[in-house]
Amino acid sequence: MPTCFVHTLPYRADPSFYFSAVCRAPGAVLLDSGRPAAQRGRYDLISAWPLAELSASADESANEFLQRLREGLSTLGAADAPAGCPLPFTGGLIGYLAYDFGRRLETLPEQAFDDLGLGDARLGLYAWAMISDHQLGTSQLMFHPALAVAEQARLLALFGAINAEPAQPFKLLETFQADLDETAYRQAFERIQAYIQAGDCYQVNFAQRFRARYQGDPWTAYRALRAACPTPFAGYQALPDNSAIISLSPERFLRLSQGQVETRPIKGTRPRADDPVEDVAQANALLSSLKDRAENLMIVDLLRNDLGRSCQIGSVRVPELFALESYPNVHHLVSAVTGELAKGKDALDLIAGSFPGGSITGAPKIRAMQIIDELEPTRRALYCGSLLYLDVRGEMDSSIAIRSLLAKDGQLSCWGGGGIVADSNWLAEYQESLTKVKVLLETLERFCD
C-alpha cells in the first residue's frame, strides 16, 4: 500500500496557531480536541483546499449519497501511515452531516420549517492534513501520495512561516433571543407527556433555538468560545459566504478504528457550581439520580440496537455505564457501547444504521423524531447532526453536534435541549436547556456593542 509523507512541525497544544494559516481558505476545517484544557481527546485535524466537495443534492437518497462518498474515497486511493507513526487520518473525507440528513434515511413528516437553508451534508475530499497528537506531543503535516509535489511544497512553506495575526473583528448586534417562550415550551412539554402516557414513546429529546444577528469573522467567535468551554469533540468548518459551523461538542457519536466501534452517549446533566462543596454535591446527585440513570439506559439500549445492524452478532458490549464527565458549565452522565464491525460492512454502513444519534432523538427513535418534527417549529439544521472524518483506510471518528452554533446569513443560531421522560418536570427541563448553552451565549454576548 502507498505510504503518506509526513513532515514534523513544532508541537502546539492549541491548534489555533496552525489553523490561522488556513482559516479563511476554501473548505477550511478544524476538528479540535480542546487541548490543553480538555483531556479526553487525542488528535487535532486541520485541512483546507479540498480536491472535491460533496454535498447531498435535493433528490438524492441517503444510500446514493453515501455511495458517492465511497467513490470519492476510492478516487483518492488507499494510503497508509509510515511505520511507527500513528495517524488517525491518511487522507479522505472531513465535514458535516446535518440532523436533517436523517430524513433521507427514514420517512418523516414535513412540518418543521427549514428557515436556515443549510444543506443536509457537506464533506470535502482532502489529500493533506495538519495533525497534532497530544498523547505523543507531535504536530505533523500529512501528505497523501496523490497530492501534487508543488502543492506539498506550498503547504510546507505556508506552515513553516506562520506569523501570528491579530483577531479579525467580530461583534454581536443584539443579545440572543429564544424562539420559544416559557408558555410555548410548557405546551410542547405537555404534548410530549401525553404521547408518553399514551404509549407512543418513552423519551423525546426536545430542543429550543436561540438567535442573534452578528457581523464579522466567525473564527474569532470560535476562539472565544473555545477559551470559555474547551471540549474534546469541538470543531470549526468554514462554509461559503463567510458562514461557518462552530461546535463545542463534548459527545462522541461513532468511532471506528481497526474494525472496533465505539459510541459514547450523554444522557443526564447537572449545572456546575462555583462553590466546590456544592459542585461535588451536584455531581453526586447526578450519579445517584434514578431518573437520569433510567434515561441514560434507554439510550444505551437504543444504541445497542443501532450498532447491532452493522456489528458482528454477539460483539456489542456496554463496557462503561453511568460514568461522570465534567465540563466548565455542566456535569454529564456518559456510557459507552462498543462492537466489532461485521464483515462486508464499512463506516458508511455504520452511519446509515445509526444516524442521527439516539441520545439526541429519544426512544423509540423514529417515533421520537416524528414528534420532534411536530413540536419543534423549525428544522434543526446542523444541531444534533455530526462533524466527522473518514479516511481512505476506513478509520472514522465523529461527534454529536450539540453545544453548536451555525453562523449563516448574518445570524448566529444555537440550540439547547434535553430528554423528556415520564417523570420529567417541565420547569427543570426548561432550565436544563438554558444551562447547557448559557456559557456559549454569555461568552458571545460580551461582543455586543
From TrEMBL:
Looking up InterPro entries in the UniProt record yields: ADC_synth_comp_1 (IPR005802), ADC_synthase (IPR005801), Anth_synth_I-like (IPR019999), Anth_synth_I_N (IPR006805), Chorismate_C (IPR015890)
The organism is: Pseudomonas taeanensis MS-3
- In this protein, which residues make up the domain named Anthranilate synthase component I N-terminal? 25-135
Which terms are listed as keywords in the entry?
Answer: Aminotransferase, Transferase
Give the transmembrane ranges.
Answer: none
Biological process annotations from GO: folic acid-containing compound biosynthetic process; L-tryptophan biosynthetic process
Which principal EC class is assigned to this enzyme?
Answer: transferase
* Molecular function, one GO term: 4-amino-4-deoxychorismate synthase activity
Enzyme Commission no: 2.6.1.85
> What Pfam family is a match, any one?
Chorismate_bind
Lineage, please?
Bacteria, Pseudomonadati, Pseudomonadota, Gammaproteobacteria, Pseudomonadales
Record's protein name: aminodeoxychorismate synthase
Domain named Chorismate-utilising enzyme C-terminal is located at: 182-436
